[in-house]
Amino acid sequence: MADDDRYRVRRLDDRELGLPDDPLDGPALIDRLRDAVLLARLMRRSVLPAILTGVMLVAWLTLELLGPHSVSGDLHPAALLLGGAKEGALLAVEPWRLFAAILLHAGAAHFLVNAVGTWFLSQMADNILGWARTVILFIAGGAVSFGASALASGAPSVGASGSVYALLGGLITAALVNRRRLPKAPWSWLAGFGALWVGLSIVFALTTRTTDNAAHLGGFLAGAFLTLAMGRRLPLFEPEPGPTPMPLLAVTLACILALTASFALSVRGITLLADLPDPALRDTALPGLSLPLPSRWAYGRLRDHRCTVEPDAPLATLAADGPLCAVDPYGSVLVLGRAADVVPGVILDPSMMAENGLRSFLGGSEGDVTRRWLVLDRRWTLAFNCYAILADKYDGMLSRVLGGMKLLPTADPLPGR
Q1: What is the CATH number of domain 44-270?
Q2: pTM flag (> 0.85)
Q3: Judging by DSSP bridges, how do beta strands 362-366 and 333-337 pair with one another?
Q4: pLDDT tier at 237, thresholds 50, 70, 90
Q5: Which residues in 78-233 belong to E strands, given as ranges?
Q6: Which one of 89, 93, 319, 409 is most buried, by most CB atoms within 10 A?
Q7: Could you tell me if 77 and 329 are in contact, meaning their C-beta atoms sit under 8 angstroms apart?
Q8: What is the largest CA-CA distance in the chain?
Q9: Fold of the CATH domain 281-407
């Protein structure tokens, strides 16, 4: 052979070729080749992460562009509730919020964190579990996470973090169940990633008051149980991955339809085309007054211009100790009490008295808030405060409240008041 550098070759030893020390060790060679195939499958790229994060991006941009904005130009405080955020009282009458809340995010940073987690974990889940199981984990696991959140707290909650934790729970469960079949190489990476994720979760739980820890835990457990329920035959270990089993495909399509339908309802809500839930009025008797009041609202006492909810106290008892108030999930407040307490600055004009009370509201708006009030007599004044963009949504309810209102004789004329 010529001594030219262009033709100079060097003998590669077995170690550089990645072969075992004993080239005649057949089982070791087969194991090495099997691990190489599994690693290649684990590193495969698919379009599923782009689809999932793309859907999340479209939903977030839809909220930002079509959702209502306040007078300051920022997204309106009620936008997430209108779009389908998980909220205890609303969830009881609108269960589609379990799915809609997955695609809602409270700002760019919230969206980006969940998008990054969805991208990386859905890629690994697609390679190990297959696309159908991954979609089920993301959608059904996210819905279950908000169910767990609702059991822990009725406070509003949104975001795909429950879905991200469902993917993580599914991956860890699949890895533990198949730990003897997986190559050794990804275990250190998976352990490091899991430790990092758990560490970040603990930090966020301790430092961020808005973190929905119940949703994270619920999503993780849902991912683990769903993975076990969907069987141990994973595409990663199949010699030739075949078509998706029909039962699994049916569940996947059902999840996709549920998410699509909930997103349509979400768009209808943020564009202010949907009506607010029926308040289901109930007749209520107070000293000197009878009227229908919303049964699903939370009642309490008005203290320092705030409604302090006392869910177990009778309404008559609440009304006997200062103004009675009621709040709904959209931030609207209804108050009953003396005019000076209910509407500060209002001077009671005796000429406004009528045997059956007045039947028209006085009112005004300030910023994003609209206030309406009605003076009935020296004891009772009804005031209603809500966001201006929702004012017309309550017109039917207020008309029924006024139509059923009756002043009753009372032994306490409240002289001088």
Answers
A1: 1.20.1540.10
A2: no
A3: unpaired
A4: low
A5: none
A6: 319
A7: no
A8: 122
A9: Jelly Rolls (2.60.120)
